[in-house]
Specification:
This protein is 33% helix and 19% strand. With 335 residues, it is α+β, with helices and mostly antiparallel strands. The strands form 4 sheets. Strands 1-8-10-11-13-12-2 form a 7-stranded mixed beta sheet, with helices on one face.
Length: 335
């Protein structure tokens, strides 16, 4: 059974920020969008190859002219993506959580029909938690696809509202802990009384947090540590979030490109589309924050497996450091 534990830490904890990923420029993303050199363009989801270039279709073996822009897409990882490849990957990304949801729902249905015992209630609740986790994953994948499309079409807008960053994070940590029993999630809560009230697009902020947490669930090994703390001064307060995992890590030569469109680590056994971290970078940048990645560990311990993704977001300067008591459960180290 997955568990999330919590510890308290003092505000202002310092951490090294090596391998910081620059926010980037407005407009089209850089053309260095893969982990290996490539001449394929990176101008959005609907990108077409330069005129005159031949495009190889891996599935059919046919070669078509670049006159039809719908025949190719930018590269993902270290291989080219045809439209068929892109649709196949997208269908797989969406079908996987749906398949799990269907199986869990069928098991739950059969158990409810066969038994009225009160002892089954705990198991039923656990299965429902897993189903909610898969629903959240599915919703996140759809959000990433929509946001990537809006970024490509230059119609990505924000709806700023006040939100409590810690409450959002607590909910997502609890969701991941309940939905992934094989992963131990430790939540290092901020010091008592700290305020994490910000102003921004709450839905987009949730998308960014989900990306870092879901990546830890997918690639993070057996343990994940989530930290939330303060940075900056009283007039310019910022929240700092770190998600540290013990997974496969990211090769050193690829860290500087991991936030670019259509990019994923070359060592990922089951890579995704390479859009989630790109969308997350753009969300953080448009909220005037920063995002980065570094290897796990400090000093001589940096050789240990795992990765630390971090981001910072501005907070409302007029909120002080007071906040409402955290919801019961997470703050006490329970899920």
């Amino acid at each position: 059974m997955a568990r999330a534990t919590a510890t308290r830490q003092t505000a202002g904890q310092s951490e090294a920020t090596m391998d910081t990923i620059p926010a980037g420029r407005r407009g089209a993303p850089s053309d260095k969008h893969t982990t290996t050199p490539s001449s394929a363009p990176s101008v959005g989801i609907d990108a077409a190859p330069p005129a005159g270039r031949k495009v190889s279709n891996k599935r059919s073996g046919r070669t078509s002219s670049a006159k039809a822009p719908e025949t190719t897409l930018p590269t993902a990882g270290t291989r080219s993506l045809s439209v068929e490849d892109f649709l196949d990957l997208t269908a797989h990304e969406l079908r996987a959580p749906l398949t799990i949801l269907k199986g869990q729902a069928q098991l739950l249905q059969m158990r409810i029909r066969r038994s009225d015992a009160e002892s089954d209630r705990t198991r039923d609740i656990a299965d429902l938690d897993k189903m909610l986790f898969q629903i959240e994953r599915l919703n996140h994948q759809v959000s990433v696809l929509l946001d990537a499309t809006h970024l490509s079409q230059r119609r990505f807008t924000l709806a700023p509202l006040r939100f409590d960053l810690e409450q959002i994070l607590q909910r997502l940590v609890a969701l991941c802990a309940a939905g992934s029993p094989s992963l131990v999630i430790e939540y290092e809560a901020p010091a008592q009384g700290e305020s994490f009230i910000g102003k921004g697009d709450r839905q987009r902020i949730e998308t960014a947090l989900c990306e870092l947490l879901f990546n830890a669930v997918r690639y993070g090994g057996v343990r994940c540590t989530v930290r939330l703390s303060h940075e900056g001064d009283v007039s310019h307060p910022q929240a700092r979030l770190e998600v540290e995992d013990t997974g496969i890590g990211i090769p050193a030569r690829e860290r500087s490109m991991i936030f670019q469109q259509w990019t994923h680590g070359s060592n990922a056994e089951h890579p995704g589309l390479g859009l989630g971290l790109y969308v997350t970078r753009e969300i953080v940048r448009r909220h005037h924050g920063r995002i980065g990645v570094r290897p796990r560990g400090k000093g001589s311990q940096r050789s240990q497996p795992g990765t630390v993704f971090w981001l910072t977001l501005p907070l409302a300067p007029d909120e002080g450091r007071a906040r409402e008591p955290a919801p019961s459960g997470i703050a006490a180290g329970k899920v």
